Amino acid sequence: MNGILSLIGHTPLLKLERFLGHEHFNLYAKLELLNPGGSIKDRPAVQMLMEAWQAGEINQDTTIIESSSGNLGIGLAQACAYLGLKFICVADARTTKVNCRIMQAYGAVLDLVTEPDPEVGTLLAARIKRVQHLLESISNSFNCNQYANRNNPLAHHQTMREILESLDQRVDYLFCATSTCGTLRGCADYLAQHGFERTKIIAVDAEGSVIFGDKTKPRLIPGHGAGVVPALFRPGLEDDYVLVSDLDCVVGCHRLLHSEAILAGGSSGGVMSAILKLQDQLPQGSNCVAIICDRGERYLDTIYDDVWVSEHFGDVAHLWQPSALM
Ligand SMILES: Cc1ncc(COP(=O)(O)O)c(C=O)c1O
């Protein structure tokens, strides 16, 4: 890969010295937020396009069509801008203004679905139908379909390889947020295929997401979680899982910001809260890695907005004040 796309991946692994306030185990952050498009989704975006190109499924005149309201849309918008491909992103009314503007700045066309599907009753179903309609009406169009595309998890073999290389192959725990389960599946498959039995994966999902059998309910923080079980998921990819609430995500984000000066997105806050929940079970001296999926700037109007936080959770700032961090 050339140009800006050549900078995707090989993100730093940073030792977090302050977040825990103790050193029973070693905590590292895989800083996927430093990918050029701002998230871990740069990896599958490029991998899905490059593999489709090599397989002859797309060419210079193809229109890429994807349903995404977040980071994959931005990753594809970046890759399509560099490769000179047309990109239509099907999003909905819940897509944040900032994400829409980032995609548009890269040159993506936004196709906004405003009404839930009349038969199924959800915006997700309406978006999927809209993608089908566009694929049928635009000749030479292509849908990556991140929920079922094997190149989504395959992109994360490299994520896992990089983490292992950074720690001399000695990783005891990997905490990873889940949505399409591309990251979980890719990291788990890599570990299994290369005999890394020592490494345990802790999946971190949202309360109200159905991946691990929770009952669906409205969620405030985008990124992690899913309303239908993704085709990429298999039970047992994870060694354990933790469900985190929206408040857990907010608290984890602010604790990360106050202790380490890292401005990260909502799922990263969830991952950090999950580590706090399990910290007493993690053995002394073990190496524990948290994947920090995206940048915090995309959450300035929510997680990092005092008014939004107090409207949804009340007075919670004491949960991340320095005294609570000790
Ligand atoms: C911020 C964030 N965290 C976590 C995830 C989950 O990653 P995956 O789709 O690989 O399960 C996503 C997916 O879009 C995301 O955008």
TrEMBL record:
GO biological process: any one? cysteine biosynthetic process from serine
| Annotated Tryptophan synthase beta chain-like PALP domain residues | 5-294
Q: Does the keyword Electron transport apply?
A: no
Entry cofactors: pyridoxal 5'-phosphate
Q: What InterPro entries does this protein map onto? A: Cys_Synth/Cystath_Beta-Synth (IPR050214), P-phosphate_BS (IPR001216), SbnA (IPR023927), TrpB-like_PALP (IPR001926), TrpB-like_PALP_sf (IPR036052)
Q: Which GO terms describe its molecular function?
A: transferase activity, transferring alkyl or aryl (other than methyl) groups
The keyword Transmembrane helix is annotated on this UniProt entry:
no
At the top level, the lineage of the source is Bacteria
Pfam short name (any one): PALP
Cite the entry's keywords alphabetically.
Answer: Pyridoxal phosphate, Transferase
Q: Which pathway is this protein assigned to? A: Siderophore biosynthesis
Protein EC? 2.5.1.140
How does this protein assemble?
A: Homodimer.
Q: Which PANTHER family match?
A: CYSTATHIONINE BETA-SYNTHASE (PTHR10314)
Against NCBIfam families, the record matches this protein to: PLP_SbnA_fam
> What family does the Swiss-Prot or TrEMBL record give for this protein?
Belongs to the cysteine synthase/cystathionine beta-synthase family. SbnA subfamily.
Query: Can you say what this protein is called?
Result: N-(2-amino-2-carboxyethyl)-L-glutamate synthase
